[in-house]
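Hi R.,

Here's the chain you asked about this morning:
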Amino acid sequence: MEKEVFARFIAPKLRLACETCLTEFPVACYPEVIASPDYEGKVLCDGCPAPR
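And here is the predicted structure, written out as tokens:
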């Protein structure tokens, strides 16, 4: 129940900014990017390449 409330009401209001181009996007749209070890803790939008 708590996850559903978070996903519906809180997460859409939380925003992140890409560390490369500063594009803002909602946290709810990119949970897999934030959790991905390939990104080495960096926040990136879809338009910026992942670090290699």
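One quick note: Residues 2-10 form the longest helix (9 residues).

Cheers,
M.
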